[in-house]
Amino acid sequence: MPGRTSRVLGGLLLAAVMAVCTAPGTAGAVADAGTTGTIPSVGTDFGRTGPYEVDVDIEAVHTFYYPRTMGRSGERHPVVIWGNGTGAVPGIYSSLLRHWASQGFIVAAANTPTSNFAISMRAGIDVLEQRNADPSSRFHGKVDLDHIASAGHSQGGAAAVNAAVDPRVDTAVPIQPGPLTDPDLMDEPVFYLAGQRDLTVWPALVKALHRDSDHVPAVYGEVRGAGHLSSIGDGGDFRAPTTAWLRYWLLGDENARGMFFGPDCGYCVDSGLWSGWDRNAGALRIPGPTA
Fold first, then answer.
1. Which interval of the chain is the signal sequence (predicted)?
2. Which domains are present in the chain?
3. Shortest CA distance to 192 belongs to which of 160, 149, 144, 226?
4. Averaged in consecutive runs of 10 residues, what is the pLDDT profile of the chain (291 residues)?
5. Cα–Cα dist 221/45, whole Å
6. End-to-end alpha-carbon separation of the chain, Å?
7. DSSP 78-107
8. How far, CA to CA in Å, does 19 sit from each of 24, 82, 282?
9. What is the model's pTM?
10. Side-chain half-sphere of 89: how many Cα atoms within 13 Å?
11. How many CB atoms lie within 10 A of CB 168?
């Protein structure tokens, strides 16, 4: 339901949403390195390459980035669906998407340069559902379809919000998102990222989307000194915080929780990284790590 009416309903249902959103699932749960059936921890160095070597398959509709040794210890790998900026292809963001795959995620990047409606992004979930069920596929039984994020840059950032209308998506990471989206249509926790010196998608536009997300837990981070293209390639200063967000919501990583939530959250005091930072009421209700 679009517009303010859906925000009213969101407010009435906030308690129920929080009950779900503050307890990420643990099907691919983080544990100490070497523990059978889990994706290894990376401590708090979320910008460092993860424990998995990465393979890439470039296909007609999607490019897939995934751990070379998927499921080696019995673990299943959460999914990130990706949307490109206007006129872009996944290869422009290849180092960032490889980084996420090295952390244990399967990334389904839509090859389209016009991702705004998120049609190809959501189709990536369909493809992985089919391959997870196919005994002849390398993905068979190795995909954690219960933990899925949508992410993207610029037009793809708006698409990350649009993709979150899909009930299979658990969280969204819009990086410098364009305006053609409506946060009222989604009910998942969201991490908005802006660039302090972005002259294409002004931080004020991203802040407006953040304010309009008062029915879900939402965090806003404005990367100090970043322009609109600072997130391409290896992700720059967007790399570590986006990785931490994905590790918390898709893996239940308590180290990552501590970067965003609780009174002493790590990113809350990192003025060297952020020129702007905000957590809405829903995010403030999420407790910090217990240990």
1. 1-29
2. 53-284 (3.40.50.1820)
3. 160
4. 37 36 50 57 97 98 98 97 98 98 98 97 98 98 98 98 98 98 96 98 98 98 98 97 98 97 96 98 96 64
5. 18
6. 40
7. EEEEEEPPTT--GGGGHHHHHHHHHTT-EE
8. 10, 27, 11
9. 0.90
10. 9
11. 17
